[in-house]
Amino acid sequence: MDNNMINKTMKKSFGKSLLYTLPMFLVTFVLISGGKPDFSNLPAALAMMVTFLFMNVLYFMMHYTGKTDKFRAILFIIFALSLSFTLINNMIEMRHSMSFSQADVLECKIPFCHLVIPMMIIPAAFTKSIIFPGSIIGGFADISSMVVLWLVATLVLGRGFCAWGCFYGGWDDGFSRFRKKSAIKKISESWRWMPFAVLFMVALTAAMTLGPTYCDWICPFKAVTEFEQISSIESVAKAVVFISLFLSLVVVLPVLTKKRTQCSFLCPMGAVNSLSNKITPFVVKIDKKVCSECFKCVQVCPLFALSKEDVKNGKASVFCSKCGKCVDVCSKNAIHFGIKGVPAGTMKNFSRNLFLFVSFLFISVFSAGSIINAVQSIFKLIF
Amino acid sequence: MKKLKIITGITWAFAGLVLMFILFPGMNNMSRSASKLPFMKINPNYTGGVVAKEIVEASCTLDIRRPVFDGLIKERKTGFVQIDWRGAVPDNIVDTIDYDLDEIPDFVITIDRIKPVTSINAVNSKVLDVGVSTPTSYGWAVRVNLRK
Q1: Which of A123, A149, A341 sits opposite B43 (nearest CB)?
Q2: Choosing among B2, B39, B118, which should be mutated to test the A contact, i.e. which has the most A CBs within 10 A?
């Protein structure tokens, strides 16, 4: 691949990259430390500083190298790992187990995650209540905070949430990078509609049963967060389903296909975020005048968001998560981050800089708590 | 028209930037406001419903909750009633429950917390069986399945 073209247009000098990083440096410092870092707890302050500096180095590298996906993925994968680590650590400390009991459900003590949102919409409209045994406000991962976080993120980033915010996506993103070449190459792009089928099914069953059916029966990420206590045949069946789905869709298939198969085929939230891609200001555009139709972008897209037809039409489909993989691989610099309404091929640097600032700000502040916690635990283990 | 599209797009993108700036500092206020929305309460199928009657016993308090038959549009044919024992709950519980508050006992519940075994002796034909019986942070909770 001819990287020179990318370097010529997107790469910035060392000084200019520093200048572009300075606002992120200041904003993340204020937001992560709360404006007044607490140095009375030295390990915590040290973990905060390490996390903060590491994030800003990644942001600097995005500007300096002109590459996006590589540095985004590092933070994204670390976020997924550290969140699972933090969550499991909390569960073990509080309950001495990764499983939750009937009492935890009865007392509404289950942490809420964004994957429940597609299922709670119809019941909320009809019953004026939330069909999840969590806390409305206060406590760990409350419903109100998660809804606000997701709502703002999906409004601004659309399906970008799946590459810049989802604390599960890093798992299959990570496994999809294990091999240099994919072992399974031919996968029909019609599979990308599968999350809509899953969304329809879980929204309907959740409305019928007034229970979060995806969380109860399907969610593969229970393998790395928490799951129902094994106490009946039903709970055994549930465990078999989520472990099988985790191994197949999050581990094995991403390794073999180099695609984020769980996100592409199963996640109902991905379908909802695809719909919000219609209103978000940031898009991935293709300058048809420059595009040589080599279709490397189609090959590397981890979410089947680019087909040959999409490339010929000059824009990524609604499935695009704006991860930047296609942008990085394009030797002609024809594919780029853009802003809705701005013609393809124009204002490339401005659009990229603005998008990177917004999306990186979100992931860095959102992930900071989990990463700091994980770094602090590592410090405790070492020292 | 083209210029208007460009200006609108860029304005929307900057609005996104502003939204992201205020998201985390304003998180507490925004989530507090969101929690006051009319649908922001947990469904009775999870909370167990509101407490209909509170009986103070020697060492603990017995809460009989409103029977829950809540469905999506109308009430379901089957549901449950949740009973909570709060405080210093004895190892062996035997209580007579009148869940519909008609002054006629509906079932007698027996709980051996040590084994743990829970059984009911139904008086009312609408009482089906024991759904959940579990220790909780406040004592003990039981859900008895009911027919409407």
Answers
A1: A123
A2: B39
* pLDDT for position A150: 95
* Backbone dihedral region for residue A35 (phi beyond 0: left; psi -120 to 50: alpha; all else: beta): left
Residue A359, min C-alpha distance to chain B (Å)? 9
List Cα–Cα distances, A202 to A94, A96, A128, A212, A349, in angstroms: 31, 31, 19, 8, 41
Cis amide bond preceding A23, omega within 30: no
Q: Residue B13: is its pLDDT beyond 70?
A: yes
Given an 8 Å threshold on Cβ–Cβ distance, is B17 in contact with A358?
yes
Residue A252, SS3? Answer: helix
Name the minimum distance, in Å, from the CA of A235 to any CA of chain B.
14
Q: What does the radius of gyration of chain B's CA atoms come to, in whole angstroms?
A: 24
**Domain boundaries in chain B?**
2-35, 44-147
Q: Calculate ∠ Cα A296-A302-A303, nearest 5°.
A: 115
* Domain A282-345: which CATH number of 2.60.40.1180, 3.90.830.10, 3.30.70.20, 3.30.70.330: 3.30.70.20
CA A169 to chain centre: 5
Whether A141 contacts chain B with CB within 8 A? no
- Per-residue pLDDT, A87: 87
Say whether B9 and A132 touch across the interface (CB within 8 A). no
Per residue in A267-284, pLDDT (tens digit) is 999 999 999 999 999 999
Instruction: Using CB atoms, pick whichever of A31, A126, A342 lies closest to residue B73.
Output: A126
In this structure, are residues B140 and B85 in contact, taking their beta carbons and an 8 Å threshold?
yes
Of B27, B41, B132, the CB nearest to A130: B41
Alpha-carbon gap, residue A280 to A147, rounded angstroms: 17
**Location of structure tokens 């048809």:** A288
pTM, entire model: 0.93
Number of CB pairs < 8 Å for A and B? Answer: 146
pLDDT mean over B1-13: 93
Asked if B132's CB is within 8 angstroms of A281's CB, the reply is: no
CB of A26 within 8 Å of any CB in chain B?
A: no
Beta strand pairing status for B92-97 and B78-87? unpaired
More confident residue, A92 or A198: A198
Residue A32: CB partners within 8 Å, gap ≥ 6?
A: A48, A51, A52, A364, A365, A368, A372
pLDDT digits (tens, 9 = 90+) for B56-79: 988 899 999 999 999 999 999 999
Please check whether residue A343 touches B, CB under 8 A. Answer: yes
At B65-118, the pLDDT tens digits run 999 999 999 999 999 999 999 999 999 999 999 999 999 999 999 999 999 999
Interface test with A, best of B46, B78, B118, B142 (most A CBs within 10 A): B46
